[in-house]
From TrEMBL:
Keywords: Hydrolase, Protein phosphatase
Keyword Coiled coil in record: no
Record-linked Gene3D superfamilies: Protein tyrosine phosphatase superfamily
Domain Tyrosine specific protein phosphatases stretches: 89-150
Residue ranges of every copy of the Tyrosine-protein phosphatase domain listed in the record: 29-169
Sample GO molecular function, one term: phosphoprotein phosphatase activity
Gene Ontology, cellular component aspect: cytoplasm
Source organism of this protein record: Meganyctiphanes norvegica
UniProt cross-references to PROSITE patterns, sorted A to Z: TYR_PHOSPHATASE_1, TYR_PHOSPHATASE_2, TYR_PHOSPHATASE_DUAL
UniProt protein name: Protein-tyrosine-phosphatase
PANTHER family: IP21249P (PTHR45961:SF6)
Length: 216
C-alpha cells in the first residue's frame, strides 16, 4: 500500500503543477481534496454523481439535513450544528479514524454539510492533520486552494488548533483579533482581516458572508 503521507505530498505537487482537478468553490460542486477524499455541500450529493466518482461512503456533518439513503453507499451522520459553541472535538477522532478506515479498505469518501464551508471542511482538515502528515496551516492552505469558500467558524478553528497540538505537539495557527470591528479570526484568514480593517467595508462584508455567525 502506498504511504499516505507520500500520496498526499504527490497529490499536492500535482495540484501546484496544474495537473489535478479544477478548483471549485461552489456548494453545488464536489471538490477533490485527495484522490479518494471529496468535500461538498448538500446540493452536490446526487446518487448518480457519487457512483460516477466511485464514492463508497458519505459522511453528512449537518444534523439538520434529512437522512438520505443511497444505493450501495454507506451514510454516516454527525449530529453537529454550525455554531461556534458546538462541540466539534467530540467527533474529530471518530470521523478521522472512519476516513482512514475507508482509505485502508480502498474506499472513496465524500464529506459534506449544507454548504461545504464550515463543518465538513473541519473534519477534512482534522484528517489531514492526524493522518495526512500536514500541519493545520498546511492542511488549511491545501483545502482552501481547492475550495476557496472553506471557512470553519471561530469555535471549530479553536477546536482544530487544540487538536493539532494534541496530535503534533505544536500549534501552527493562531487566533487574532481586529479591534476595529471586534472580530477574532484564525491568522490563516488574515487577508480577510485586512479587508475588514477598512471600516467602510466591514458592515457590508459581515452582512454578506455572515461573519458574526461564523467567527463570533
Amino acid at each position: 500500500m502506498v504511504n499516505l503521507e507520500a500520496a498526499v505530498t504527490s497529490f499536492c505537487i500535482e495540484q501546484s503543477n496544474g495537473k489535478a482537478l479544477q478548483k471549485s468553490n461552489l456548494c453545488s460542486e464536489i471538490s477533490s481534496i485527495l484522490p479518494w477524499l471529496f468535500l461538498s455541500g448538500a446540493r452536490a450529493v446526487r446518487e448518480a454523481r457519487l457512483h460516477e466518482l466511485g464514492i463508497t461512503n458519505v459522511i453528512n456533518t449537518a444534523m439538520e439535513l434529512p437522512e438520505q439513503p443511497l444505493d450501495n453507499i454507506e451514510v454516516t451522520t454527525v449530529q453537529l450544528q454550525d455554531v461556534p459553541g458546538a462541540d466539534l472535538s467530540q467527533y474529530l477522532h471518530q470521523i478521522c479514524d472512519k476516513l482512514e478506515s475507508i482509505r485502508m479498505n480502498d474506499g472513496r469518501a465524500l464529506v459534506h454539510c449544507v454548504a461545504g464551508v464550515s463543518r465538513s471542511p473541519s473534519f477534512v482538515l482534522a484528517y489531514l492533520v492526524k493522518y495526512g502528515g500536514m500541519s493545520l496551516r498546511e492542511a488549511y492552505q491545501h483545502v482552501h486552494d481547492i475550495r476557496h469558500s472553506v471557512r470553519p467558524n471561530h469555535g471549530f478553528f479553536e477546536s482544530l488548533i487544540a487538536f493539532e497540538y494534541i496530535e503534533r505537539g505544536r500549534s501552527t495557527v493562531n487566533m487574532i483579533t481586529n479591534p476595529d470591528v471586534g472580530l477574532t479570526v484564525p491568522d490563516v484568514c488574515e487577508n480577510e482581516l485586512h479587508v475588514l480593517k477598512d471600516e467602510r467595508w466591514a458592515l457590508s462584508i459581515k452582512e454578506r458572508r455572515g461573519f458574526d455567525n461564523r467567527y463570533a
